[in-house]
Structures are given as C-alpha cells and as structure tokens.
Specification:
The complex is a heterodimer of chains A (764) and B (51). Helices cover 52% and strands 16% of the residues of chain A. Chain A has 764 residues and is α+β, with helices and mostly antiparallel strands. Among the domains of chain A are: 86 residues, Alpha-Beta Plaits (2-Layer Sandwich); 219 residues, no CATH class; 100 residues, Calcium-transporting ATPase, cytoplasmic domain N, CATH 3.40.1110. In chain A, the strands form 5 sheets. Chain A has a 7-stranded mixed β-sheet with strand order 15-27-26-25-16-23-24, with helices on both faces. A 6-stranded antiparallel β-sheet of chain A has the order 7-6-8-14-9-12, with no helix packed on it. Helices cover 65% and strands 0% of the residues of chain B. Chain B has one domain. In chain B, 0% of the residues are buried. Chain B has 2 helices and no strands. Classes of the chains: A alpha+beta (764), B mainly alpha (51). The interface between A and B is medium-sized, with 26 and 26 residues.
Chain lengths: 764, 51
C-alpha cells in the first residue's frame, strides 16, 4: 500500500528562498543508519541538505529548486525500511528549545565566572601572608568577572522573582535573587573599603549550581516533548483530498482547509470534522464519545474527526469551526478546566513562602541583636547580610528539580512521557483513580474475543485471508497473527468479505451470509459485538469481534487497589457494556452514559469531598475531564486533544505503566521531602554560625557546595524506577488474563516482539 | 608580585576565549544532537578510497 502524500504544504520558507521540512523518522536502530540515510539522500538532485538528528530521531531537508519532488525522498526512505512523516514543530516545543538554549548560555557564563572567581578566592583564603594590595587586586578582578556574569546569568532568576513580587507572591527565586544581589553588593563595598572578606565566589557558584539544575530539568522535558511529537507525527494519518477536478491526493491533516472535500474509505478514520456529502456507512465513534455502538450516517450528517469508518466510502466536506455541538462543548469545558488547573501551588513554592519571611526575619533580628550588643552599624549590617547569603536557598532550590530530573528520566525509560513539570508532585498525592472505559481499560482497536475457542490453524488461515482487506473487522482478525503472510489471489468483495482459494478449496471470510453460515453465527451474536464468519470447505468458525479488556487491566486495578486507591469507572458508553467491564474488573463504583460535562461535574464533586483524582482517559470526550482532574494520564493511542490535556502519556499496549508511574511519583515525593529536610538542616547549622558572626567566605563556600552535592546525590536515587513487582509476578504466573493473547501462539510472540522493538526504538 | 598584573588577565583571557568558543558552538547548533555527534565521529565518509 503506497500512497504519495503531498507534504510540500508543511515546508517552511527561509529568507533566502530555501525551503525546510522536518520529518519524524521511524525505524532508526543504530548510528549506522545516519550514514545510510544521509548518503542515500545525497544523490537526490535538487536536495541541498539532508541531515539526521539521531537523538531526536528526526531528519531535516532543505531545498531551493521548485522542481524538487518530495516523493522521491519518501520512496527511497521506504525502500530502506524507514518511515518518515513530516510534522510542524508545535509552538510549545519551540519555546522550550529556546529556553533550554538560553539556560545553557547562562550556565556557561556562570560556570566560567565561578571557576575563575574561585581560583582567585582560593588564593586569598589560603595565601596567609598575602599583602593587602594583592588581596584588593584579586577582589577587584573577581568583581570585574562576577558582576557582569551575574547580570547576565542571573536573569532567569531575577525575572521570575520580579514577576512573583509584582503579583504579591513569594517564590523560591525571591530569596535566591536577594542572596545573590546582597552578596555582590556587600562584596563590592568590602572591596572598596579594603576589607578582608568578599563573597563573589558564593554568588557565582550559587548561580552555576542552580542553572545546572534548571537546564537539566528543561532538557529532560524537551527530550520528552520531542519524542511525543515524533510519535504523534508518525501516527497522524494522511487524508485523501478530492480536488475540484475529481483527482485524489493524499495530504497531511493540517493541510485540509474548510470547504475541502475528502474521501474516507472503510477502515480509515474521519480526518476532520465535517458534513457527509455522499455515501452511507456506519461509524465507530468510540474515540470521540466513548460509545461503542456504531452510528449509521448518510448524506447531511455531521461527523467528527477520529471516528472510524466501517462499511462504505464517504465523501465529506470539511467544516471550519466544527459547527457540531459536541466539539464546541468540549472546547468550552476544556478552557474552563484548564483555567482552574493553574491553581496548583508547587511544593518548592509552598516551602519558599514559609522560608523566605523566616530568613529575612532572622537577618533582621541578627542586625538588631548586634546593634543592641554595642556593635557598629557596619558590623551589624555585614553580619545580617552574611546570614542572608548563607541561607540563600541553593540546596533548597535544587531539592525538587534534581529529583524531578532523575525521576522523569527513569519514567521516560519506562515508557511514560511527562508533559508538565509538576505532574510528579500531583501524582504522588492522588487517592482516587478514575478510568474511562473505552480505549483505556479496553483495547482501542477491536479484537477477536473468542480467539481461544477457535482452532489455531483455522484462525491462522482466517488471519492470512484478513490481511487482504482494509475493513476494520478484518483487521481485527488480521491482528491475531500480525506477521502472517497474506494469501495469494485473495479478492475482496466490497461490503461482503474476502475470498481466496486455499489447497484447492474456497475460503471465505466476512459477512455470515457471504460465507453461508448464518445459523452458526446467530448463536454467537450478542449485543455488543460484531460477528464475522470464516469458512474453509466444510470447516467454519464464527469470530466475535469487539473491544476487549486490555490484558493486564485486572492486575493493574488490583495493584492500584492494594495501594489504597479508590477506583471509579466513568464512561461515555451505554450502561450495559460499562457494567460488564466493571464486573469483570471487580470495580464497585462505575457509571455509564456520561456526557463530557457529567464527567467534569463528577470530578468536581470528588474534589469538593477533598479527593485528589488521577483521571485516565483517551477519547475526545475525556479531554475536559483530563484537564479538570488533579492529574491525568493518557495512553499513546488517545485522541490528540486528550493527549494535549493529559499531564503524561504512556506507551505500549498495557496499563502497567500507570502503577509504575504512581510508585515512581510517590518515591519521588518522599525523596523531595528528604531533600527539603536536608537543606533545612543545613540552614539550621549554618545560620547560627552566621548570626554569631563566625562566618567567613571559606566556610560559606564549603557549606553551600557540600549541601548542594548531598541533595543532588540523594535525588539521583529517584532514577531507579522499577516496574511494579507484583504485576511482573502476575504476568509470569498467568501469561494471559484477558484479551486475545493466548500463550504459546506464534502471533503472540511476534506481537510482543514487535512491541518491544517499537518501544526501544522510541526510548533508546 | 607584579607578574600577577600580567598573568591573571592572561589566564582570564584564555578562559574567556574558551567561553566564546562554547557560545559560538552553541549558537551554531552543535548541541542539537549529542548522540548523533558521538556516532558521526566514527564516520569515514571524508576519507578518499585511494583509487
């Protein structure tokens, strides 16, 4: 199945007339692929540059000639076994990239300054017989380095502190900025008055440490985002656009404009919201509404992006602002929920709110106490400032981000991509988990539910036959043996089934009437499922196709219950299938037929009871609920709008990452608290020293750097995230609990093998 | 100690050169793909075959 997708619409125009296109690459496994791809593309005429970014798994192309034909590139890549899909960098990712560059630049300057100032300071501390002129010279040089460096590298902190103060709030950057500025000001004064102590080294070292932590935090998030964007680009299907002259061309979804006509064949998803112009079909809208029953549509009906087209080809007209009430309502709910979300106050900021007034008060008391004891104003002030310098929250500011970097890196390797910075903190607080049913607890695509009752040999043959059809039901059968070879000479009869000759006998797969086995299938048909028949000579089978529970759904729910979490299922599907799923999973609290607004209302009610809810969902209809919950997760095959609303996305076909995430978040929170305690302990030791006037720059430097190192080392323990042990055990005991993955079948092995490959390709 | 008047600025100048080189390489995009850069060092596409 090849299609020439016209991607030129996504290219960006450079100032010199050059065009650039970025592609997400799938299938790169090792470094040798870089050279293979680049040398293969070098030979293409008109292509000026082709450069692979191995870390991000991306390829960027540049060309100037208008004659350049992109299909040559995609064809060449395809023949080498790579899949390439262009994508537009979303603005969030671009901003993140700018921030990370800016932080790295600041870090470089701060590190340069701190190393050089430290070199000069050490000479002052250790050179006991140094004469006053040399010392002043060293201090002067230090000032010349430290002042411009701090003015440049301190900007991220000063800006954030200033913004917080203007909003009448205190955040962790306020005491940091104050400490840096005061230590610089005092050091300049001391240098001018030829005094023996200057704190230039403390100020620059502090900035270097903190910038390092922020840069790593930012870099980790950027990498996660890049991977998520790649996955989205690789999964995004192309739409078949019908031009005015009736010609068909495949274009990326973003290129579909309102008013365009698009053709949707059976087995494809509706590319954009629109109105049916012609054709009759039934749609599976489970990704949109959570409803598993199919809806019949004909000319004039409104259809939503993401719905799976089942029976017939549809021609739709793309609508501008999706006049449909459903999407409008979801957008409205989503805006409201997102605005409410920003109320969350981060752990570090909560600590800073208590900490900052405390140390400022301590400094004031120190100054007053020294004045009362008869010290000069100068001595009293320098002691007070020394208190502020030594309590400048270096370790405190590292305590949380250091853990975040280690934990989100470990989760990344475990296949969980965190979207937001404070998701870990919020995840650790949850006491209730709300699941959506369709696509979350169940597999997003339908499966053969009674696979284990059918002879493996017969099922294998059916799967081989099914590989020749694009019909969603046939694909469910094909999925049983994804690597099976398609049958030669198979022929599809539109709307009926597939037929082929095997061993001289005719084999048919499809509608029960088409196969002539209506009677057998009538028994198998039940409310929820579709029945597809298979006949090979005298032997026949009725295959029940429906969305089955994910295979570790039960174990995951059990594991979450054991962690003391309350489990609730809220689904947009009808009550009967929701009840069946809830019973199978042994979940007492469930509710079906919920509209997006009902879900949000239920979550609000839980919040009012003081519950912290983790929402897990995948559908368009879940998006507002995902944004309204305390914290939210989405599987990777979720609708785009749902993924954007979720705090984290997990990869793979299993739910186990949920348990891993909860465990990792709780562990991370424990470490964050330990770190906060450690840094407060450091202050409890160092502050009295400063108050007593015993602090010298040497002691300050030693105390600050050692406390920062201890906190960072402790945080690195968050990097060891292990998959939930009991789930591993459960899987080992019974390889299949639900779903069609029978153990010991060839299909099972290849499916798992492929999944692992996919994940490694993404995460490595 | 007059030699310090000369040596300290010299040391700083060398350090500043290093910093400038780093900022230049950062702006030139050399830190965009660290994993790829590690692998590219092994590439021998710039070596002539000698034929």
């Amino acid at each position: 199945m090849t299609m020439d997708v016209d991607f030129s619409t996504l290219a960006t125009h450079g100032p010199d007339g050059a065009r650039r296109l970025e592609l997400a690459l799938d299938g790169m496994t090792c470094a040798a692929c870089i050279f293979e791809i680049e040398s293969a593309l070098k030979a293409i005429p008109d292509l000026t540059t082709a450069r692979v970014n191995y870390g991000d798994r991306r390829l960027s192309l540049e060309w100037t000639a208008p004659t350049f034909d992109f299909s040559i590139v995609s064809e060449r890549l395809r023949r080498m076994g790579y899949r390439a899909r262009p994508f537009e960098r979303e603005s969030g990712e671009r901003a993140e990239r700018e921030t990370s560059r800016r932080l790295l630049r600041c870090l470089a300057v701060a590190a340069f300054a701190s190393v050089n100032v430290m070199m000069l300071s050490e000479a002052v501390w250790l050179g006991g017989d140094m004469d006053a002129t040399t010392r002043d010279f060293f201090h002067g040089v230090s000032a010349l380095i430290a002042l411009p460096a701090a003015a440049f590298a301190g900007q991220p902190f000063f800006a954030s502190a200033f913004a917080a103060l203007r909003a009448h709030r205190l955040n962790i950057d306020v005491p940091i900025s104050l400490g840096v500025l005061l230590s610089l000001a005092m050091s300049v004064y001391e240098t001018l008055t030829h005094a023996p102590h200057a704190y230039f080294d403390s100020a620059t070292m502090l900035l270097a440490f903190l910038l390092l932590a922020r840069y790593l935090d930012c870099a980790m998030r950027r990498k996660t985002r890049a991977v998520a964007a790649n996955l989205a680009a690789l999964r995004a299907p192309a739409a078949c656009r019908l031009d005015a002259d009736g010609a068909q061309s495949y274009v990326p979804l973003a290129a579909l404009a309102p008013g365009d006509h698009a053709l949707v064949r059976p087995g494809e998803r509706i590319p954009a919201d629109g109105v049916v112009l012609s054709g009759d079909s039934s749609l599976d809208e489970s990704l949109v509404t959570g409803e598993t029953r199919r809806r019949s549509v004909g000319a004039g009906d409104t259809v939503y992006a993401g719905a799976m087209n089942f029976d017939g080809a549809l021609t739709i007209c793309v609508l501008a602002a999706a006049g449909g009430s459903l999407i409008d309502e979801i957008e409205r709910l989503l805006d409201k929920a997102t605005a409410a979300r920003s109320r969350y106050r981060r752990l570090a900021d909560r600590v800073a709110r208590l900490y900052a007034p405390l140390v400022h008060l301590a400094a004031l008391c120190t100054a007053l106490a020294w004045l009362l004891a008869g010290a000069s104003l100068h001595d009293a002030l320098t002691t007070a400032i020394a208190v502020l310098i030594v309590t400048c929250p270096c370790a405190l500011a590292l305590a949380v981000p250091a853990v975040q970097v280690a934990a989100s890196g470990a989760l990344f390797r475990a296949g969980v991509l965190l979207n937001s910075a404070d998701a870990l903190e919020r995840l650790a607080e949850i006491d209730t988990v709300v699941f959506d049913k369709t696509g979350t607890l169940t597999t997003p695509e339908p499966r053969v539910a009674n696979a284990q009752e059918i002879e493996p040999e017969l099922l294998m043959l059916a799967a081989r036959l099914a590989h020749s059809s694009r019909h969603p039901l046939a694909r469910a059968v094909a999925r049983e043996y994804p690597r099976a070879a398609p049958l030669e000479g198979a022929r599809e009869e539109q709307g009926a089934g597939v037929v082929a000759i095997v061993d001289g006998i005719e084999a048919r797969l499809g509608d029960p009437c088409f196969c002539g086995v209506e009677r057998d299938c009538a028994a198998a048909a039940r409310d929820e499922s579709s029945v597809i028949a298979f006949r090979h000579g005298e032997r026949s089978a009725a295959l029940v196709v429906r969305q089955t529970l994910r295979r570790d759904a039960r174990d995951t729910i059990d594991a979450l219950t054991r962690r003391g979490l309350r489990i609730i299922i809220l689904s947009g599907d009808r009550t009967a299938p929701v009840e069946a799923a809830a019973r199978a999973l042994d979940v007492a609290e469930w509710r079906g037929a919920m509209k997006p607004a009902d879900k949000v209302a239920r979550l609000e009610a839980l919040r009012a009871q003081g519950r912290k809810v983790l929402m897990i969902g995948d559908g368009v209809n879940d998006a507002p609920a995902l944004a309204a919950a305390h914290v939210s997760l989405s599987p990777i095959d979720a609708a785009q709008i749902a993924q954007a609303a979720a705090d984290a996305v997990f990869l793979g076909e299993e739910l186990a990452p949920i348990v891993t995430t909860v465990d990792a978040a709780r562990r991370a929170r424990a470490l964050m608290r330990q770190n906060l305690a450690l840094s407060l302990l450091y202050n409890a030791v160092a502050a009295p020293l400063a108050m007593a006037g015993l602090l010298t720059p040497l002691i300050a430097a030693l105390a600050m750097s050692s406390s920062s190192l201890i906190v960072t080392l402790n945080a690195s323990r968050a990097g060891r995230v292990s998959a939930a042990r009991e789930l591993e055990g459960a899987r080992a005991r019974s390889p299949r609990t639900d779903g069609p993955n029978g153990s010991g079948r060839a299909g099972d092995e290849s499916r798992d093998g492929r999944r692992v490959e996919e994940e490694e390709g993404i995460v490595a | 100690m007059n030699v310090l008047l000369f040596l300290v600025p010299l040391a700083l100048l060398l350090g500043a050169l290093g910093l400038a080189a780093f900022v230049w390489s950062l702006n030139a995009g050399q830190y965009e793909d660290l994993e790829g850069a590690a692998a590219r060092a092994l590439s021998d596409d710039d070596v002539e075959d000698g034929r």
